[in-house]
Amino acid sequence: QVQLVESGGRLVQAGGSLRLSCAASGGTFSRYVMGWFRQAPGKEREFVAAISRSGGNTDYADSVKGRFTISRDNAKNTVDLQMNSLKPEDTAVYYCNNLLGILTWGQGTQVTVSS
What we know:
- The protein is mainly beta and 115 residues long.
- It is built from no helices and ten strands.
- A six-stranded mixed sheet has the order 2-10-9-4-5-6, with no helix packed on it.
- The protein is globular, with a radius of gyration of 13 Å.
- The mean pLDDT is 96.
């Protein structure tokens, strides 16, 4: 079973940038369409971005389109999320998983955007 470990979250001012990384181990990472998700306090987990197995196709939630970029490195078993022009409403715990959420969820990484 694939294990997922997210990192890179921290406190940042509005308008700033962060790069999150997700490291996968214990399975064939390249077989999965991967996604980033986030959960803000008191809200349900929501989709943020997805990337195809090869990395050639991506998809984004409307709320982050044009600001976030997802990428992956199948040789390193990692999937990253570059976040630019951050807004306070981007504050959440960020998780990576297969797009269908079938892998065991990691602990996530906290992103806090101050106004």
